[in-house]
Amino acid sequence: MRVGFLGPEASFTHNATKTAFPNEELISYHSIPACIKGVEFGEVDLGVVPIENTIEGSVNTTVDYLYHQTSIPVGAEIVLPIYQQLMVAKNNQDKWQETTKILSHPQALAQSQEFIRTYFPMAELEGTPSTAYAANFVASHPEQKIAAIAPKLSAQTYELSIVGKNIQDVAINQTRFWVLGSEKVALPIASEDKKLTIALTMPNNMPGALHKALSAFSWREIDLSKIESRPLKTTLGEYFFLIDINVQKPQQLIDNALEEIRLMGGSVKIFGNYSIYPINGV
Question: How far is Cα 203 from Cα 131, in angstroms, rounded to an integer?
Fold first, then answer.
């Protein structure tokens, strides 16, 4: 089986993917849309992309592409602890505080703001397609006074020196990854809990529309773990709602709630009904 992931190698997504699929062929993609398209076009059987981080919240690129562009199902969720490291070329490890530019994925930069403000308040910050891309770039340009924020594995892969350990703003920092391409995906690690993720829209002119939709879950005592809005990209002020449902009630009860919402004129898109797999981070 071929499994795509947001690359390059040594990124957090790569780490999650190789832990979940240790015996499969892993294919690197340069962006989240490219990875999802790889599943759509049959280049790979499954794809692994980030969906949410403890500090920065949802990965909007993933959410929006899955809502607007495709109907690929979510088959599993991987939860990975995230530890960010500041790394430089080995010839710069003794003068790392002279760094003038820090490169990383925008999420990683945002997760490390306190460290950056303390040690590099004047440094230029540059977003890259992934953390591993940033590490590879730093390794390829040892003559420049640049640093990367990336996982420990990136330092090992690209032979960089870690000069700032576990620099993320929050000690318990995790990222959720979705496995796309099949309605059910079994992984060789223990799962905990199940979740149903939907996208919901309600008629524009219905007073209290969102309240009425949520009441369909409330009176049935169905637990919602997350709700957020995203632009519909049609008219200013129109949104869809991304909702995570903890699957603790009988499935029929949840199906009835969704049907009640549809009878009120709402529209429901199911992303997936999947198991959650926590793994140890690197």
Answer: 41
CB within 8 Å of 248: residues ≥ 6 apart: 223
pLDDT digits (tens, 9 = 90+) for 142-186: 999 999 999 898 999 999 999 999 999 877 778 899 999 999 998
Indicate whether 101 pLDDT > 80: yes
Q: Closest Cα to residue 3, out of 151, 187, 193?
A: 187
**Which residue type does 73 have?**
P
Tokens read off for 77: 């969720």
The residue assigned the tokens 């603790």 is 248
For residues 21 and 44, give the distance between their C-alpha atoms in angstroms, rounded to a whole number.
Answer: 13
For residue 57, give its domain range.
Answer: 2-82+173-180
Is there a single domain that holds both residue 200 and residue 246? yes
8 A C-beta contact, residue 243 and residue 197:
yes
pLDDT at residue number 50: 93
Residues for the chain: how many in total? 282
Burial of residue 250 (number of CB atoms within 10 Å: 0-12, 13-18, 19+): exposed
Final residue belonging to a domain, choices 137, 153, 180: 180
Residue 186 lies in a domain: no
Amino acid at 45: D
- In the chain, the amino acid numbered 30 is H
Structure tokens at 52: 């949410």
